[in-house]
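Troubleshooting log. The previous run stalled partway through. Resubmitting the same two chains, unchanged.
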Amino acid sequence: MSLLTPAIGLLFWMLVVFLLLVVVLRAYAWKPIIAGLKDREHEIQSALDLAQQTKAEMVKLQADNAKQLAEANAARDRIIREAKDAADHMIAEAREKATVEGQKVLESARETIRNEQQAAISQMKKEVATLSLQIAEQVLRRELSDKASQEKLVAELASNARMN
Amino acid sequence: MLIHIRRYLKVALVATLLVSNPLWAQHNDSPGPHGEVVDEIEQSGHEDTTSQEGHEEEEFNIGEMIMHHIADSHEWEYAHGLVIPLPVILYSQDRGVEAFMSSKFHNPQHEYNGYLLTHDDKEVIVPVDESRTVYDFSITKNVASMLLSAIILILIFGTVAGAYKSRPGKAPRGFQSAMEIIILFIRDEVVKPNIGPTYEKYLPYMLTLFFFILINNLLGLLPGAANLTGNIAITLTLAVLTFVIVHINANKHYYMHLFKPTGVPVALLPVMVPVEIVGVFMKPFSLMVRLFANITAGHIILLSLFGLIFIFKSIYLAPVVSLFALFMNFIEIMVAFIQAFIFTLLSCMYIGSAIEDNHEADHGIGH
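Second attempt completed without errors. Output:
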Protein backbone atom coordinates (compact mmCIF):
# COMPACT_ATOMS: atom_id res chain seq x y z
CA MET A 1 0.00 0.00 0.00
CA SER A 2 1.26 3.43 -0.92
CA LEU A 3 0.68 4.78 2.61
CA LEU A 4 3.26 2.39 4.00
CA THR A 5 6.06 3.09 1.52
CA PRO A 6 8.13 6.05 2.64
CA ALA A 7 9.13 8.51 -0.06
CA ILE A 8 12.87 9.05 -0.34
CA GLY A 9 12.56 12.81 -0.72
CA LEU A 10 10.50 13.16 2.43
CA LEU A 11 12.91 10.92 4.35
CA PHE A 12 15.81 13.07 3.20
CA TRP A 13 14.20 16.39 4.06
CA MET A 14 12.86 15.10 7.33
CA LEU A 15 16.33 13.95 8.40
CA VAL A 16 17.94 17.23 7.37
CA VAL A 17 15.26 19.52 8.79
CA PHE A 18 14.82 17.61 12.03
CA LEU A 19 18.53 17.35 12.75
CA LEU A 20 18.97 21.04 11.98
CA LEU A 21 16.02 21.80 14.21
CA VAL A 22 17.59 19.80 17.05
CA VAL A 23 20.90 21.63 16.61
CA VAL A 24 19.34 25.09 16.32
CA LEU A 25 16.85 24.67 19.16
CA ARG A 26 19.52 23.09 21.36
CA ALA A 27 21.85 26.04 20.91
CA TYR A 28 19.37 28.92 20.86
CA ALA A 29 16.43 27.68 22.90
CA TRP A 30 16.94 24.65 25.13
CA LYS A 31 20.30 25.66 26.57
CA PRO A 32 19.19 29.09 27.86
CA ILE A 33 15.80 27.74 28.93
CA ILE A 34 17.23 24.77 30.84
CA ALA A 35 19.97 26.94 32.32
CA GLY A 36 17.38 29.54 33.36
CA LEU A 37 15.18 26.92 34.95
CA LYS A 38 18.11 25.39 36.75
CA ASP A 39 19.33 28.76 38.01
CA ARG A 40 15.91 29.59 39.32
CA GLU A 41 15.53 26.22 41.02
CA HIS A 42 18.96 26.68 42.52
CA GLU A 43 18.02 30.15 43.76
CA ILE A 44 14.80 28.89 45.31
CA GLN A 45 16.63 26.01 46.95
CA SER A 46 19.33 28.24 48.36
CA ALA A 47 16.72 30.71 49.61
CA LEU A 48 14.92 27.86 51.35
CA ASP A 49 18.18 26.61 52.81
CA LEU A 50 19.01 30.08 54.03
CA ALA A 51 15.59 30.41 55.65
CA GLN A 52 16.08 27.06 57.37
CA GLN A 53 19.52 28.07 58.55
CA THR A 54 18.26 31.44 59.79
CA LYS A 55 15.49 29.69 61.65
CA ALA A 56 17.95 27.37 63.35
CA GLU A 57 20.14 30.32 64.22
CA MET A 58 17.16 32.16 65.65
CA VAL A 59 16.29 29.20 67.83
CA LYS A 60 19.88 29.03 69.02
CA LEU A 61 19.93 32.77 69.62
CA GLN A 62 16.73 32.57 71.62
CA ALA A 63 18.13 29.74 73.72
CA ASP A 64 21.26 31.80 74.29
CA ASN A 65 19.19 34.77 75.29
CA ALA A 66 17.19 32.74 77.77
CA LYS A 67 20.38 31.30 79.19
CA GLN A 68 21.93 34.72 79.53
CA LEU A 69 18.79 36.06 81.14
CA ALA A 70 18.79 33.22 83.67
CA GLU A 71 22.46 33.83 84.38
CA ALA A 72 21.87 37.54 84.84
CA ASN A 73 18.97 36.84 87.21
CA ALA A 74 21.10 34.44 89.19
CA ALA A 75 23.94 36.96 89.39
CA ARG A 76 21.56 39.68 90.51
CA ASP A 77 20.08 37.46 93.21
CA ARG A 78 23.51 36.48 94.37
CA ILE A 79 24.70 40.08 94.54
CA ILE A 80 21.61 41.16 96.45
CA ARG A 81 21.97 38.29 98.85
CA GLU A 82 25.64 39.05 99.42
CA ALA A 83 24.91 42.72 99.96
CA LYS A 84 22.20 41.86 102.43
CA ASP A 85 24.50 39.49 104.24
CA ALA A 86 27.22 42.12 104.36
CA ALA A 87 24.77 44.71 105.63
CA ASP A 88 23.44 42.35 108.28
CA HIS A 89 26.92 41.49 109.27
CA MET A 90 27.92 45.11 109.49
CA ILE A 91 24.82 45.99 111.52
CA ALA A 92 25.43 43.10 113.90
CA GLU A 93 29.05 44.05 114.27
CA ALA A 94 28.20 47.69 114.88
CA ARG A 95 25.58 46.71 117.36
CA GLU A 96 28.00 44.48 119.19
CA LYS A 97 30.65 47.15 119.16
CA ALA A 98 28.17 49.69 120.40
CA THR A 99 27.05 47.37 123.16
CA VAL A 100 30.63 46.74 124.18
CA GLU A 101 31.38 50.48 124.08
CA GLY A 102 28.27 51.27 126.06
CA GLN A 103 29.16 48.62 128.54
CA LYS A 104 32.61 50.10 128.83
CA VAL A 105 31.27 53.62 129.26
CA LEU A 106 28.75 52.37 131.79
CA GLU A 107 31.46 50.48 133.59
CA SER A 108 33.72 53.48 133.75
CA ALA A 109 30.82 55.68 134.81
CA ARG A 110 29.97 53.23 137.50
CA GLU A 111 33.62 53.16 138.53
CA THR A 112 33.70 56.92 138.63
CA ILE A 113 30.46 57.03 140.60
CA ARG A 114 31.78 54.47 143.01
CA ASN A 115 35.01 56.39 143.38
CA GLU A 116 33.10 59.62 143.89
CA GLN A 117 30.87 57.92 146.38
CA GLN A 118 33.87 56.59 148.23
CA ALA A 119 35.48 59.99 148.16
CA ALA A 120 32.23 61.66 149.24
CA ILE A 121 31.73 59.16 152.02
CA SER A 122 35.26 59.52 153.24
CA GLN A 123 34.92 63.29 152.94
CA MET A 124 31.65 63.17 154.81
CA LYS A 125 33.16 60.95 157.41
CA LYS A 126 35.99 63.45 157.75
CA GLU A 127 33.50 66.32 157.88
CA VAL A 128 31.31 64.52 160.42
CA ALA A 129 34.37 63.75 162.52
CA THR A 130 35.53 67.32 162.25
CA LEU A 131 32.03 68.58 163.02
CA SER A 132 31.68 66.21 165.91
CA LEU A 133 35.01 67.34 167.16
CA GLN A 134 34.02 71.00 166.77
CA ILE A 135 30.69 70.33 168.55
CA ALA A 136 32.40 68.44 171.26
CA GLU A 137 34.98 71.25 171.52
CA GLN A 138 32.19 73.86 171.72
CA VAL A 139 30.26 71.82 174.21
CA LEU A 140 33.26 71.26 176.30
CA ARG A 141 34.44 74.87 176.04
CA ARG A 142 31.18 76.43 177.17
CA GLU A 143 30.74 74.17 180.19
CA LEU A 144 27.17 74.65 180.23
CA SER A 145 25.30 74.44 183.50
CA ASP A 146 21.92 73.66 182.47
CA LYS A 147 20.91 70.80 180.55
CA ALA A 148 18.33 72.74 178.58
CA SER A 149 20.79 75.15 177.06
CA GLN A 150 23.06 72.24 176.27
CA GLU A 151 20.35 70.49 174.37
CA LYS A 152 19.43 73.77 172.66
CA LEU A 153 22.94 74.24 171.59
CA VAL A 154 23.18 70.69 170.29
CA ALA A 155 19.98 71.14 168.29
CA GLU A 156 21.27 74.43 166.98
CA LEU A 157 24.53 72.90 165.91
CA ALA A 158 22.78 69.93 164.37
CA SER A 159 20.53 72.15 162.32
CA ASN A 160 23.52 74.20 161.29
CA ALA A 161 25.28 71.04 160.26
CA ARG A 162 22.25 69.96 158.29
CA MET A 163 22.25 73.33 156.62
CA ASN A 164 25.64 72.61 155.29
CA MET B 1 8.88 40.15 21.38
CA LEU B 2 6.28 38.26 23.36
CA ILE B 3 3.58 40.65 22.23
CA HIS B 4 4.75 40.25 18.66
CA ILE B 5 4.39 36.48 18.86
CA ARG B 6 1.00 36.78 20.42
CA ARG B 7 -0.14 39.17 17.74
CA TYR B 8 1.29 36.90 15.09
CA LEU B 9 -0.58 33.90 16.49
CA LYS B 10 -3.80 35.90 16.64
CA VAL B 11 -3.44 37.00 13.03
CA ALA B 12 -2.66 33.43 12.03
CA LEU B 13 -5.77 32.18 13.83
CA VAL B 14 -8.03 34.75 12.22
CA ALA B 15 -6.50 34.08 8.82
CA THR B 16 -7.04 30.36 9.27
CA LEU B 17 -10.66 30.88 10.16
CA LEU B 18 -11.22 33.14 7.17
CA VAL B 19 -9.47 30.94 4.67
CA SER B 20 -11.03 27.78 6.00
CA ASN B 21 -14.43 28.98 4.84
CA PRO B 22 -13.82 28.05 1.20
CA LEU B 23 -12.94 24.56 2.36
CA TRP B 24 -16.27 24.07 4.06
CA ALA B 25 -17.89 25.65 1.07
CA GLN B 26 -16.11 23.13 -1.08
CA HIS B 27 -17.42 20.31 1.04
CA ASN B 28 -20.92 21.62 0.75
CA ASP B 29 -20.57 21.85 -3.02
CA SER B 30 -21.53 18.96 -5.15
CA PRO B 31 -18.60 16.63 -5.59
CA GLY B 32 -18.67 17.33 -9.32
CA PRO B 33 -15.52 19.47 -9.72
CA HIS B 34 -13.53 17.25 -7.46
CA GLY B 35 -14.60 14.17 -9.32
CA GLU B 36 -13.63 15.87 -12.52
CA VAL B 37 -10.08 16.36 -11.30
CA VAL B 38 -9.86 12.77 -10.25
CA ASP B 39 -11.26 11.77 -13.62
CA GLU B 40 -8.64 13.86 -15.33
CA ILE B 41 -5.88 12.39 -13.23
CA GLU B 42 -7.08 8.87 -13.95
CA GLN B 43 -7.01 9.53 -17.65
CA SER B 44 -3.53 10.96 -17.70
CA GLY B 45 -2.30 8.17 -15.47
CA HIS B 46 -3.36 5.60 -18.01
CA GLU B 47 -1.75 7.63 -20.78
CA ASP B 48 -4.37 6.43 -23.19
CA THR B 49 -5.96 9.72 -24.02
CA THR B 50 -4.89 13.29 -24.52
CA SER B 51 -8.26 14.91 -25.03
CA GLN B 52 -10.72 15.69 -22.32
CA GLU B 53 -13.90 13.73 -22.46
CA GLY B 54 -17.36 15.02 -21.71
CA HIS B 55 -18.41 16.10 -18.22
CA GLU B 56 -20.09 12.99 -17.00
CA GLU B 57 -21.27 12.78 -13.40
CA GLU B 58 -18.55 10.78 -11.71
CA GLU B 59 -19.44 8.50 -8.81
CA PHE B 60 -18.01 9.95 -5.59
CA ASN B 61 -15.13 7.75 -4.50
CA ILE B 62 -14.64 8.28 -0.78
CA GLY B 63 -11.54 6.07 -0.59
CA GLU B 64 -9.82 8.11 -3.24
CA MET B 65 -10.83 11.37 -1.59
CA ILE B 66 -9.43 10.25 1.75
CA MET B 67 -6.20 8.95 0.24
CA HIS B 68 -5.79 12.18 -1.67
CA HIS B 69 -6.05 14.15 1.56
CA ILE B 70 -3.80 11.91 3.59
CA ALA B 71 -1.08 11.44 1.02
CA ASP B 72 1.71 13.81 0.19
CA SER B 73 1.40 16.11 -2.80
CA HIS B 74 3.65 18.20 -5.01
CA GLU B 75 1.44 21.22 -4.55
CA TRP B 76 -0.36 22.65 -1.57
CA GLU B 77 -4.03 22.54 -2.38
CA TYR B 78 -5.31 24.60 0.47
CA ALA B 79 -8.85 24.57 -0.81
CA HIS B 80 -10.34 23.81 -4.18
CA GLY B 81 -8.95 26.38 -6.58
CA LEU B 82 -6.51 27.76 -4.03
CA VAL B 83 -3.38 25.88 -4.95
CA ILE B 84 0.14 26.89 -3.98
CA PRO B 85 2.69 25.40 -6.39
CA LEU B 86 5.77 23.99 -4.69
CA PRO B 87 9.27 23.47 -6.07
CA VAL B 88 10.03 20.11 -7.63
CA ILE B 89 13.64 18.95 -7.22
CA LEU B 90 14.68 15.84 -9.13
CA TYR B 91 17.96 14.03 -9.26
CA SER B 92 18.91 11.56 -11.96
CA GLN B 93 22.31 10.28 -12.92
CA ASP B 94 22.16 11.42 -16.50
CA ARG B 95 20.64 14.86 -15.97
CA GLY B 96 21.87 15.76 -12.50
CA VAL B 97 19.70 18.02 -10.36
CA GLU B 98 16.65 19.56 -11.97
CA ALA B 99 14.39 22.06 -10.26
CA PHE B 100 11.12 23.62 -11.42
CA MET B 101 7.76 24.59 -9.98
CA SER B 102 5.04 21.96 -9.76
CA SER B 103 2.71 24.29 -11.65
CA LYS B 104 4.60 23.25 -14.81
CA PHE B 105 2.59 20.00 -14.68
CA HIS B 106 -0.65 21.98 -15.13
CA ASN B 107 -1.28 20.77 -18.66
CA PRO B 108 -3.66 18.13 -19.96
CA GLN B 109 -0.92 15.48 -20.09
CA HIS B 110 0.58 16.39 -16.68
CA GLU B 111 3.89 16.21 -18.45
CA TYR B 112 6.92 18.48 -18.30
CA ASN B 113 10.48 18.11 -19.46
CA GLY B 114 10.20 14.35 -19.88
CA TYR B 115 8.49 13.75 -16.55
CA LEU B 116 4.94 12.70 -15.79
CA LEU B 117 2.98 13.45 -12.64
CA THR B 118 0.95 10.32 -11.99
CA HIS B 119 -1.91 10.02 -9.55
CA ASP B 120 -2.75 6.31 -9.56
CA ASP B 121 -2.19 5.17 -6.04
CA LYS B 122 0.01 7.96 -4.91
CA GLU B 123 1.15 11.16 -6.51
CA VAL B 124 4.51 10.31 -8.06
CA ILE B 125 6.76 11.91 -10.64
CA VAL B 126 7.95 9.31 -13.15
CA PRO B 127 10.16 9.79 -16.19
CA VAL B 128 8.51 9.28 -19.55
CA ASP B 129 11.46 7.18 -20.60
CA GLU B 130 10.96 4.23 -18.27
CA SER B 131 14.60 3.10 -18.47
CA ARG B 132 15.70 6.12 -16.44
CA THR B 133 15.58 6.22 -12.68
CA VAL B 134 14.88 9.51 -10.97
CA TYR B 135 15.04 10.43 -7.30
CA ASP B 136 12.46 12.91 -6.13
CA PHE B 137 13.73 15.42 -3.54
CA SER B 138 10.88 17.87 -4.11
CA ILE B 139 9.67 20.31 -1.51
CA THR B 140 6.32 18.60 -1.26
CA LYS B 141 3.36 19.68 0.81
CA ASN B 142 4.70 17.67 3.76
CA VAL B 143 8.19 19.13 3.46
CA ALA B 144 6.75 22.64 3.26
CA SER B 145 4.61 21.97 6.30
CA MET B 146 7.63 20.57 8.12
CA LEU B 147 9.64 23.70 7.32
CA LEU B 148 6.73 25.82 8.52
CA SER B 149 6.58 23.89 11.79
CA ALA B 150 10.35 24.25 12.20
CA ILE B 151 10.05 28.02 11.77
CA ILE B 152 7.17 28.17 14.26
CA LEU B 153 9.14 26.11 16.77
CA ILE B 154 12.22 28.31 16.41
CA LEU B 155 10.08 31.45 16.77
CA ILE B 156 8.26 30.15 19.83
CA PHE B 157 11.24 28.79 21.71
CA GLY B 158 13.56 31.56 20.58
CA THR B 159 11.11 33.96 22.21
CA VAL B 160 10.81 31.85 25.34
CA ALA B 161 14.60 31.53 25.59
CA GLY B 162 14.84 35.31 25.14
CA ALA B 163 12.50 35.76 28.09
CA TYR B 164 14.79 33.61 30.23
CA LYS B 165 17.82 35.58 29.09
CA SER B 166 16.33 39.05 29.51
CA ARG B 167 14.76 38.41 32.90
CA PRO B 168 17.10 36.00 34.67
CA GLY B 169 16.00 34.79 38.07
CA LYS B 170 12.51 36.28 37.71
CA ALA B 171 9.20 34.46 37.80
CA PRO B 172 8.00 33.35 34.36
CA ARG B 173 5.44 35.52 32.63
CA GLY B 174 2.79 35.01 29.95
CA PHE B 175 3.70 32.72 27.10
CA GLN B 176 6.95 31.80 28.85
CA SER B 177 5.08 30.24 31.78
CA ALA B 178 2.75 28.34 29.44
CA MET B 179 5.73 26.72 27.71
CA GLU B 180 7.59 26.27 30.98
CA ILE B 181 4.88 23.99 32.32
CA ILE B 182 5.25 21.67 29.34
CA ILE B 183 9.06 21.84 29.35
CA LEU B 184 9.15 21.06 33.06
CA PHE B 185 6.68 18.22 32.60
CA ILE B 186 8.83 16.67 29.88
CA ARG B 187 11.97 17.14 31.94
CA ASP B 188 10.69 16.03 35.33
CA GLU B 189 8.05 13.44 34.45
CA VAL B 190 9.30 11.96 31.18
CA VAL B 191 13.04 12.38 30.68
CA LYS B 192 14.47 12.45 34.20
CA PRO B 193 12.74 9.37 35.70
CA ASN B 194 13.21 7.20 32.61
CA ILE B 195 16.74 8.03 31.54
CA GLY B 196 18.30 8.54 34.94
CA PRO B 197 21.14 10.72 36.14
CA THR B 198 22.61 11.38 32.68
CA TYR B 199 19.32 12.74 31.41
CA GLU B 200 20.65 16.21 30.61
CA LYS B 201 22.57 14.93 27.59
CA TYR B 202 19.33 13.74 25.96
CA LEU B 203 17.04 16.53 27.13
CA PRO B 204 17.44 18.85 24.10
CA TYR B 205 16.69 15.99 21.70
CA MET B 206 13.67 14.85 23.70
CA LEU B 207 12.25 18.35 23.98
CA THR B 208 12.70 18.91 20.26
CA LEU B 209 11.12 15.53 19.53
CA PHE B 210 8.11 16.23 21.73
CA PHE B 211 7.42 19.71 20.44
CA PHE B 212 8.07 18.73 16.81
CA ILE B 213 5.53 15.90 16.99
CA LEU B 214 3.08 18.01 18.97
CA ILE B 215 3.13 21.01 16.68
CA ASN B 216 2.87 18.86 13.56
CA ASN B 217 0.01 16.86 15.07
CA LEU B 218 -1.80 20.11 15.80
CA LEU B 219 -0.94 21.70 12.45
CA GLY B 220 -2.26 18.56 10.78
CA LEU B 221 -5.65 19.22 12.34
CA LEU B 222 -5.98 22.61 10.69
CA PRO B 223 -8.10 22.64 7.55
CA GLY B 224 -6.02 22.23 4.41
CA ALA B 225 -2.89 21.33 6.32
CA ALA B 226 -0.52 18.47 5.59
CA ASN B 227 -0.76 15.12 7.35
CA LEU B 228 2.89 15.17 8.36
CA THR B 229 3.05 13.01 11.49
CA GLY B 230 0.67 10.59 9.80
CA ASN B 231 3.29 9.96 7.14
CA ILE B 232 5.39 6.85 7.54
CA ALA B 233 8.57 8.57 6.30
CA ILE B 234 8.41 11.06 9.18
CA THR B 235 7.73 8.51 11.89
CA LEU B 236 10.35 6.22 10.35
CA THR B 237 12.98 8.96 10.55
CA LEU B 238 12.11 9.75 14.16
CA ALA B 239 12.13 6.07 15.13
CA VAL B 240 15.47 5.50 13.40
CA LEU B 241 16.96 8.51 15.18
CA THR B 242 15.85 7.10 18.52
CA PHE B 243 17.24 3.70 17.51
CA VAL B 244 20.59 5.26 16.59
CA ILE B 245 20.77 7.24 19.83
CA VAL B 246 19.97 4.13 21.85
CA HIS B 247 22.65 2.04 20.15
CA ILE B 248 25.34 4.71 20.23
CA ASN B 249 24.88 5.25 23.94
CA ALA B 250 24.05 1.70 25.05
CA ASN B 251 26.50 0.25 27.55
CA LYS B 252 28.15 -3.16 27.41
CA HIS B 253 25.49 -4.71 29.61
CA TYR B 254 22.91 -3.93 26.95
CA TYR B 255 24.92 -5.65 24.20
CA MET B 256 25.91 -8.51 26.47
CA HIS B 257 22.30 -9.06 27.35
CA LEU B 258 21.51 -9.13 23.63
CA PHE B 259 23.89 -11.96 22.78
CA LYS B 260 24.07 -13.73 26.11
CA PRO B 261 20.89 -13.18 28.09
CA THR B 262 21.52 -13.80 31.77
CA GLY B 263 19.76 -16.66 33.47
CA VAL B 264 18.91 -18.41 30.19
CA PRO B 265 20.06 -22.04 29.74
CA VAL B 266 22.57 -22.52 26.93
CA ALA B 267 20.18 -24.82 25.09
CA LEU B 268 17.68 -21.99 24.77
CA LEU B 269 20.19 -19.48 23.40
CA PRO B 270 19.52 -20.26 19.70
CA VAL B 271 15.90 -19.28 20.33
CA MET B 272 16.44 -16.42 22.73
CA VAL B 273 19.12 -14.52 20.82
CA PRO B 274 16.99 -14.08 17.67
CA VAL B 275 14.06 -13.10 19.88
CA GLU B 276 16.20 -10.48 21.60
CA ILE B 277 17.47 -9.16 18.28
CA VAL B 278 13.96 -8.97 16.84
CA GLY B 279 12.95 -7.16 20.03
CA VAL B 280 15.61 -4.54 19.38
CA PHE B 281 14.04 -3.71 16.03
CA MET B 282 10.47 -4.09 17.23
CA LYS B 283 10.84 -1.20 19.64
CA PRO B 284 11.51 1.53 17.05
CA PHE B 285 9.14 -0.22 14.67
CA SER B 286 6.33 0.05 17.20
CA LEU B 287 7.22 3.73 17.73
CA MET B 288 7.00 4.32 14.01
CA VAL B 289 3.70 2.50 13.50
CA ARG B 290 2.02 3.87 16.62
CA LEU B 291 2.38 7.53 15.71
CA PHE B 292 1.70 6.96 12.02
CA ALA B 293 -1.39 4.84 12.63
CA ASN B 294 -2.88 7.07 15.31
CA ILE B 295 -2.62 10.26 13.33
CA THR B 296 -3.62 8.71 10.02
CA ALA B 297 -6.57 6.96 11.63
CA GLY B 298 -7.77 10.25 13.09
CA HIS B 299 -7.60 11.90 9.70
CA ILE B 300 -9.37 9.00 8.04
CA ILE B 301 -12.19 9.14 10.59
CA LEU B 302 -12.66 12.88 10.11
CA LEU B 303 -12.57 12.60 6.32
CA SER B 304 -14.95 9.63 6.39
CA LEU B 305 -17.41 11.66 8.42
CA PHE B 306 -17.32 14.48 5.90
CA GLY B 307 -17.46 11.94 3.09
CA LEU B 308 -20.82 10.73 4.44
CA ILE B 309 -22.36 14.03 3.35
CA PHE B 310 -21.37 13.38 -0.24
CA ILE B 311 -22.27 9.71 -0.16
CA PHE B 312 -25.80 10.44 1.01
CA LYS B 313 -25.93 13.67 -1.00
CA SER B 314 -27.99 15.21 1.76
CA ILE B 315 -27.53 18.64 3.29
CA TYR B 316 -29.55 17.57 6.33
CA LEU B 317 -26.86 15.13 7.32
CA ALA B 318 -24.30 17.93 7.51
CA PRO B 319 -25.17 19.27 10.99
CA VAL B 320 -25.11 15.77 12.50
CA VAL B 321 -21.84 14.96 10.79
CA SER B 322 -20.42 18.30 11.86
CA LEU B 323 -21.27 17.52 15.47
CA PHE B 324 -19.53 14.18 15.21
CA ALA B 325 -16.59 15.82 13.49
CA LEU B 326 -16.40 18.45 16.23
CA PHE B 327 -16.29 15.71 18.83
CA MET B 328 -13.64 13.86 16.82
CA ASN B 329 -11.61 17.05 16.53
CA PHE B 330 -11.52 17.38 20.30
CA ILE B 331 -10.39 13.78 20.54
CA GLU B 332 -7.76 14.44 17.89
CA ILE B 333 -6.41 17.41 19.87
CA MET B 334 -6.10 15.10 22.84
CA VAL B 335 -4.47 12.44 20.65
CA ALA B 336 -2.02 15.05 19.35
CA PHE B 337 -0.76 15.64 22.88
CA ILE B 338 -0.92 12.00 23.94
CA GLN B 339 0.97 10.69 20.92
CA ALA B 340 3.70 13.31 21.23
CA PHE B 341 3.97 12.41 24.92
CA ILE B 342 4.02 8.65 24.27
CA PHE B 343 6.62 8.87 21.53
CA THR B 344 8.88 10.90 23.81
CA LEU B 345 8.19 8.71 26.82
CA LEU B 346 8.95 5.47 24.98
CA SER B 347 12.09 6.95 23.41
CA CYS B 348 13.26 7.86 26.90
CA MET B 349 12.46 4.39 28.19
CA TYR B 350 14.42 2.74 25.36
CA ILE B 351 17.41 4.95 26.06
CA GLY B 352 17.05 4.46 29.79
CA SER B 353 16.95 0.68 29.50
CA ALA B 354 20.04 0.69 27.27
CA ILE B 355 22.19 2.89 29.49
CA GLU B 356 21.06 1.79 32.94
CA ASP B 357 23.65 0.01 35.04
CA ASN B 358 21.57 -2.37 37.14
CA HIS B 359 22.34 -5.55 35.22
CA GLU B 360 24.82 -6.39 37.96
CA ALA B 361 21.89 -7.17 40.21
CA ASP B 362 20.62 -9.74 37.70
CA HIS B 363 24.02 -11.41 37.77
CA GLY B 364 23.71 -11.71 41.51
CA ILE B 365 20.37 -13.51 41.21
CA GLY B 366 21.64 -15.74 38.41
CA HIS B 367 24.52 -17.15 40.43
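Takeaways: Chain A has one domain: 42-163. The helical segments of chain A are 8-142, 147-163.
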